[in-house]
Amino acid sequence: xxxxxxxxxxxxxxxxxxxxxxxxxxxxxxxxxxxxxxxxxxxxxxxxxxxxxxxxxxxxxxxxxxxxxxxxxxxxxxxxxxxxxxxxxxxxxxxxxxxxxxxxxxxxxxxxxxxxxxxxxxxxxxxxxxxxxxxxxxxxxxxxxxxxxxxxxxxxxxxxxxxxxxxxxxxxxxxxxxxxxxxxxxxxxxxxxxxxxxxxxxxxxxxxxxxxxxxxxxxxxxxxxxxxxxxxxxxxxxxxxxxxxxxxxxxxxxxxxxxxxxxxxxxxxxxxxxxxxxxxxxxxxxxxxxxxxxxxxxxxxxxxxxxxxxxxxxxxxxxxxxxxxxxxxxxxxxxxxxxxxxxxxxxxxxxxxxxxxxxxxxxxxxxxxxxxxxxxxxxxxxxxxxxxxxxxxxxxxxxxxxxxxxxxxxxxxxxxxxxx
Length: 420
Fold this sequence. Notes:
Blueprint: H1 2-20, E1 22-23, H2 31-43, E2 49-62, H3 75-78, E3 87-93, H4 100-104, H5 109-123, H6 130-135, E4 160-168, E5 171-178, E6 185-194, E7 205-213, E8 216-224, H7 233-247, E9 267-273, H8 282-290, H9 294-298, H10 302-308, E10 316-317, E11 355-360, E12 364-371, E13 382-391, E14 415-416
């Protein structure tokens, strides 16, 4: 009992140091002012904890049980045309149709492997060289991933490899990281929670992963919550989220005091088809969507309303949404389901922001939040970029430092003070 109390006190103290003691950087201050401030800080402290920053890319996509074609282009979703992130965490819902056979069957590893192969290809493209082109036979039909040119080869590798992935029925999460970061990623863990049929089956629920990057713990929750557009259905979604928070438990690590519950981690991000709708008459919703009145729609967004009332995801955060609702579309179309009045539909589905990315705690700064246009399913994929601040074992610039290349600039030279 005493050991447990000591461990709990240690965790609380550590969180106080990590979350509440950021010392602002002085990158925009005059040099003399920054030096004086730093001297005053270091003279009053016994030690400091160095921090580095890493860019984390998070994506979520309900693919409607549709197997992706071999030539599916993921470049726009993964933003590979922009600066590449250090870590990619991608979550899927309904990677298989939610039929009784799939719900009761074992994992369909074939479909998850197929998605992983597409992700690997998108993240590891190379610059095409003349030499490669000359070796390709004329008329040969093949997909070429060009070789990296000599000028692009630097001390930090840019290849990406899968660190961990897990599927539960239609929910699938996969994490990729730069190869030079692998040695600093540890304590991988997975926890699955079924919230579907009978409150236990995996047609709804979550797959969560956890890991440590340097000295900081991360938890990512990929979920598919209860569906339904009727009044009161949001309560079922709230209940699913509560069950996931209560029942997610990562396996213990011998001789290590690692967090086992979602909210005990240093950095927490939740992604997925949360299924919250817009609490307005359907005609009103469609009219506001047509006129791109996002602010009026968001005032009636169920998720934000439930969060503001403290009924779900209390103290969680979400960046402002400035894109169109991601659900529900006609397949292979840019039209929302039911827009064509000439076609009879079984049940109407008003547009809604079902697909979301939210986060909890400190040490995360969201720098992008958007959707991508893809006609593969009735949902549009979403993505977010974060700057994640991470405790590291050595100061920036020291020989043998294991920091990301991003930690060399002034923005990442942040220090945490010793707790009093």
